[in-house]
Amino acid sequence: MTSWTSTHKYRFTRPSSLGIRLSMRLVTYLDAKGLEKPALHVGPLGKGSLIEIPPASVLDLITSQNEYLPTVRKILSSYKEGKLPSSQIVDETSVKLLSPLPHPLSMRDGYAFRQHVEAARRNRGAPMIPEFDHFPVFYFTNHLAITGPGEVSVHTQALDHLDFELEVAIVMGKPGKNIPAEKADEYIFGYLIMNDWSARVLQMEEMKLNLGPAKGKDFATSLGPYLVTRDELLPYAITSPKGERHPFKMKAFVNGKQYSEGNLKDMTWTFAQIIERASRGVTLHPGEVIGSGTVGTGCFLELNGSKITDNLWLKPGDEVILEVEHLGRLENKIVSEK
Known about the structure:
The protein is α+β, with helices and mostly antiparallel strands.
């Protein structure tokens, strides 16, 4: 077994040929003592059960798969056979779910949906930029400001034209450098819903300096509530030399009203192509997160500019729900930072 150590002091073990498939859903929740606990999610999304598993965190499971996966698979088998003690099973609705990966090693966010890019540029009187078709672009965002379901605390300044962004993200499952797109999907551990909260006034001010979004995105990104492994989703995958696509409907609701609808398969650049670009000359590590970018219609910035909505922005008390087929519902409430 080959092992190596990252600068983040996590020990990674390269996956061996154990023949262990990763068809499962993972969560992180707060136990009765207020500790973060990783668990398998079984049953229907939103009202299933959680099964305790041995790693200290989901990140530990991802970075040390050879160590933990055989035991996790045995636990899942015992559950399916009805042999698991009830003390190891927790009702999902009885605990507070966090992001399944509360502490990712890094976070990149892409710009992969042409519909969103075209509409956003058109709405501000700019032509479609030809470089969009040359390579998949991404930026780094704050991986230390992750939230899961529940309240999202927002500073007063960031509440000015506060927006949601309907996205899906992947989590890397094994290390790789210079990964070709035709093999990149093999490096994906799983998928989860992502809400890239955006303070539009801050964002537009700073982007005039041509360094991309920073403080406008710095305060929060919501991920979850489930991390669904790639193997769990393989039956739905549309394969191509450019990478897998998933025909999953994506919807966003604010205070119970639907505003957005798109489909994950409509990414112009696949996750495999983004991985190829991101890994060029750089090693990607297990536990790093990469977002898709906003799906078409997936934010108020685009909807307002297209006159679908009229200067509508989020405010304290608003409830935002992002829904993606087979990935669940990410429900958040905006609160003003005290």
